[in-house]
């Protein structure tokens, strides 16, 4: 089993518990925003990430930092959840837990996450059209686009929804032609 699969197995019960707690408190949207904020902060601050993941730093110090950083910034449920993760020495799995949490919430809300790779930024009209097309394809209520700019695609785009990939990029077409020509010769 890969380490990512192992971490996902450990993270899933925590994510499920958080979804249940957030749902009971009627705070799913607020918790989503708060976890996105925390994830963004951790991605921007390597020092903070290293601090939380360091097993040599005591749980008390980590708890104090969480309290000072996030009190009055995020929902109290999120703070309590972070403190539980620190107590159980699972704070190093926070990224995976947040990812699993969002997956579960999006499933609950019939939301599909579509990763879109494009060479240029899509306009609002293009994004709306893409969202509508993905809604039709997946029969979902809502679609969340995660757009990444990849200039090497030249033109077109790549859409990843779960394990499915739709590649309409010029780069993908050229790669396909190259593979065909290499196979023929």
Kindly describe this structure.
The chain is 63% helix and 13% strand. With 185 residues, it is of the alpha+beta class. It folds into two domains: 3-106, N-terminal domain of the delta subunit of the F1F0-ATP synthase (Peroxidase, domain 1, Orthogonal Bundle), CATH 1.10.520; 111-184, no CATH class. The chain has a four-stranded mixed β-sheet with strand order 2-1-3-4, with helices on both faces. Strand 3 (158-161) and strand 4 form a beta hairpin. Helix 1 (3-24) crosses helix 6. The chain is elongated and about 65 Å long. The two termini are 39 Å apart. The model has no long low-confidence stretch (mean pLDDT 88).
Structure keywords:
alpha+beta, Peroxidase, domain 1, 4 strands, 185 residues, 63% helix, 4-stranded mixed beta sheet, elongated
Q: State the secondary-structure class.
A: alpha+beta
- Helix-strand pattern, N to C? HHHHHHEHEEEH
Q: Outline the biggest β-sheet.
A: 4 strands, mixed
Extract low-pLDDT stretches. none
Report the sheet-strand fraction.
5-15%
Number of domains: 2
Helix content: 55-70%
Under the CATH scheme, which architecture of the largest domain would be assigned?
Answer: Orthogonal Bundle
Top-tier CATH class of the largest domain: Mainly Alpha
GO cellular component, one term: proton-transporting ATP synthase complex
Subcellular location: Plastid, Chloroplast thylakoid membrane
Keywords: ATP synthesis, CF(1), Chloroplast, Hydrogen ion transport, Ion transport, Membrane, Plastid, Thylakoid, Transport
Pfam family, one: OSCP
Helix and strand layout, with pairings?
Layout: H1 3-24, H2 28-44, H3 46-53, H4 59-70, H5 76-87, H6 94-108, E1 111-118, H7 124-138, E2 142-149, E3 158-161, E4 164-167, H8 170-184
Parallel strand pairs: 1-2
Antiparallel strand pairs: 1-3, 3-4
Helix pairs in contact: 1-6, 2-6, 4-5
Organism: Gracilaria tenuistipitata var. liui
Main location: plastid
Pfam families: OSCP
């Amino acid at each position: 089993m890969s380490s990512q699969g192992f971490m996902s197995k450990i993270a899933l019960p925590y994510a499920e518990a958080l979804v249940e707690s957030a749902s009971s408190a009627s705070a799913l949207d607020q918790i989503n925003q708060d976890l996105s904020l925390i994830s963004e902060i951790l991605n921007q601050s390597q020092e903070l990430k290293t601090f939380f993941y360091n097993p040599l730093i005591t749980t008390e110090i980590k708890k104090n930092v969480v309290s000072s950083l996030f009190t009055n910034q995020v929902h109290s449920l999120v703070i309590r959840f972070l403190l539980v993760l620190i107590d159980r020495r699972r704070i190093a799995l926070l990224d995976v837990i947040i990812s699993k949490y969002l997956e579960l919430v999006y499933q609950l809300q019939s939301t599909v996450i579509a990763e879109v790779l494009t060479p240029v930024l899509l306009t609002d009209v293009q994004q709306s059209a893409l969202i509508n097309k993905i809604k039709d394809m997946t029969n979902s209520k809502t679609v969340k686009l995660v757009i990444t700019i990849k200039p090497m695609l030249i033109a077109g785009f790549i859409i990843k929804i779960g394990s499915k990939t739709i590649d309409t990029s010029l780069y993908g077409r050229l790669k396909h032609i190259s593979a065909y020509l290499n196979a023929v010769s």
